Amino acid sequence: MSLLGTLNTGASGLGNSSTRLSVIGDNIANMGTTGFKGMRASFSDMMPSSTFGTGGRSQIGGGATLAGTMSLFGQGGLKSSDSALDFAISGEGFFPVTDGDETYYTRDGTFFMDNEGYLTNAAGMNLQGTLASGGELTGLQGDLQLDRTAISPQATETISIDLLLSAETEISTTDFLNTATFDGTTTTGTDLADIEAALGGDDATGYTSSVTVYDDLGVPHDILMAYERVSATEWTYKAFMDGSELDNATYEEGGAVEISTGVLAFTDGELDTALSTAPTLTLADLFPGTTTVWSPEFDWGVDFGTGEPSGEGNLSMGGTQNSMATMTQDGYSPGELTGVNLDDEGNLMGTYTNGEERILGQLTLATFGTNTGLNKIGGNLFQQTVNSGEAVLGGPGVGRRGSVTGYALEQSNVELEDQFVEMISGQRAYQANSRVVSTANDTLQELVNLV
Asked: For residues 321 and 266, what is the distance between their CA atoms, to the nearest angstrom?
């Protein structure tokens, strides 16, 4: 190789070392960039020149050239944030965003809500996801728009009761629930306080509990559930409301109005519907301002028609103490949206002032045949290419798609220690190549002086 060839070889090394340092500098500059994926420069040797001597054909290297740069898609650390619209991906996947004309992909989960409820990134691109309507996912993909309108009230339709009645409760000798008068007036009838006192106490012959229900205007009302043991295997059941909450001027505050009654029989501790009397509703009064008679169903976990398990309730008898596990109902008052949270399945759950939760949409993640084929375009965005393959969309946690965490952001995956080591190595390579150029130059100068 001539001395001019040596100069070219050294120059190629200088250029490659400079490129390597530039990539390292870009990685370090983006250490604080959310979702940034570090890059690495790769090099290859140049085509050697051939010479022929007494020993035959020989090859002399011509230096190095840039083979390319590639993004390193290792996981970045997660950092908590105070925004409900900050999302971090753990594992594979990208958030798809669109400017209306083209879809891009990002690991930066910093999103905002615009004045129309759309989730957008800092560049104003709309986040894509599965849309919801009426609190249910539709399966349709599109720009995620959160419905911020208030939810209308819903009247209670079912009261589910999960209750264990004590097998050691005293048997009543008076059958209080069937002999007392419950007409809603405290002058001739029995009030709610009397019922609780009669069935409770040290020598309790029954059990009482209460639940709040809602009429079709979303107005809350309290129901007193009363159970009295009348034999070794039977209990009398009644439900009461405060007469003052009904649309009837003759009812007084605290007066017990019976709205449901039945006999609950047990065989080996389990509710026996063949021996029980199906609960019946007797309420014929309207709630103030409503136009329909309220007629809920009581769910004890058994269908009284078939005897088969049904619903979410569970009524049984056993043990030494009455124990109410849960008593829930499906009604609610009107509610305003107060916040948004992300659940484990990537659903955006709206929380309301009435305590209800509704699905407002679901995040979608995109995966590719190979991430290294994606094209960086700046702004924390990637573009799909022929090399990456088409994006495959789906919910978090499905297939190769990772999980998504709310109130968190993925940090850059650049490790400063590694970059410093690479920088030192690149600097030494640059110095060595500069010596090659300097030595070749000095040798050429010596040759010129000799001539």
From this structure: 16
